[in-house]
Amino acid sequence: MRILVVGINYAPDLIGVAKYTTELCEALASFGHEVRVITAPPYYPAWKIPSSFRGLHYGHELINGVSVTRSPIYVPQNPTGPKRLLHHLSFAMTSAWPVAVSALRKSPDIVLSVAPSLMSAAFPAWIGRRTGALTWLHLQDFEVDAAFDLGLLSNRLLRKPMIAVEQRILKSFDHLSTISPQMAHRLTAKTSNSTIWELRNWTDTSQIANAGYSSQLRDELGLADSHFVALYAGTMSNKQGLELIVEAARTLSQSAPNVRFVLSGAGPERINLQQLAVGLRNIQFLDLQPDLRFAQLLKTADVHLIPQRAEAADLVLPSKLGGILASGKPVIVMAEPGTGLADEIESAGIRIAPGDSIALAATINWLAQHPSLCSTLGDGAKATALARWDKHTILKGLMDRLEMLSSTRGRRLDDEPGILPRKGPIRDGLSSNITK
After folding, report:
1. Fewer CB near the last or first residue (10 Å), C or N of the chain?
2. Domain extent for 46
3. CATH (domain of 228)
4. φ, ψ for residue 353 (rounded to 5)?
5. Among candidates 305, 297, 286, which has minimal Cα distance to 213?
6. What is the per-residue pLDDT across 368-423, written as a single tens digit (0 to 9) for each?
7. Residue 52, class by beta-carbon neighbours within 10 Å (0-12 exposed, 13-18 middle, 19+ buried)?
8. Three-state DSSP class for 287?
């Protein structure tokens, strides 16, 4: 099949949406499909384009069998809400030309758009219909809801027209997918006339399981075997509420000297967090780590931390969760009962209320004093990763789905009797092996 993919994030960015779009495209290419990608220069999560990618020009390269075209883009140093809108608008405008050229020169079988950026998805849907391609939109998060619920955009008069635009874009695609059951239900509420799949973000469970414990990494971080390490690894932005980790570290700085905190990653909130942590000797910061070292870092932790603001519930499911579970270590999440994040760690960790740094500190200290409970939860985490997050299982299911899509080219999949139900999201989207 010929597959045209449009998404704002791609390799060499290391984390977030880029990781999964890249691995998806490379997997499709490895199965013999012709994959063309229209994307932006790397910039995330530092919000800075490397010097080798800067300039108002289009770039072309071949990465692991995938043809990649990069469109120039505006990247703000301080990504406020209005500046993010301009950021996404710039990609929507500059990507339209290579999307049109690619689709018209060699008609694709499938046009896949990845959101974010939803704004850039409208034109691929339009060009896909006109070239006879099946159109597919994969949502990694709900940008409009997040922008207002998290305070990135404060003008409430904008919300209604932006939701109307969002719904129109969603309904312009033949097929929709997203990354969790809760997000699939939310997507169904937004548009009831599309077939919705659950295509969750995956993790290479074997790579993390085989990484092994790294005493060298602990030595580099100045950590003794007696230290109980609480780790956050990922993007540092305002939707996580990472200041709660700093507050927990402050709470335990005197009462639990054996507990140490490590925050690894990058993002617009990192400088603020480092300033909040000034004077605390039980917390340290690391940059983003390459894959192998990242896997070792995950296994070096004694407990993983996933704070999340209550307003972000089911707007996104943290992509780092799969790797955390595969490390075989317990996880503490800040989430309300019944949310996707809470459900995912049911047998693998402890849920506490969002926004409560005192409860976070107390839970970390409790686990530090109960190693047998940590071991039990760690075993549950590893089992959950294998059952729901395994990369091979999910991608194999996806390939089967795409082959079915190809065979139904030219007619909607939900009009085919016996293939998919007509109403409601599909919990097992790709394979029975990734259901709960």
Report:
1. C
2. 2-202+391-434
3. 3.40.50.2000
4. -70, 145
5. 297
6. 999 999 999 999 999 999 999 999 899 988 888 887 776 665 444 444 333 233 23
7. exposed
8. coil
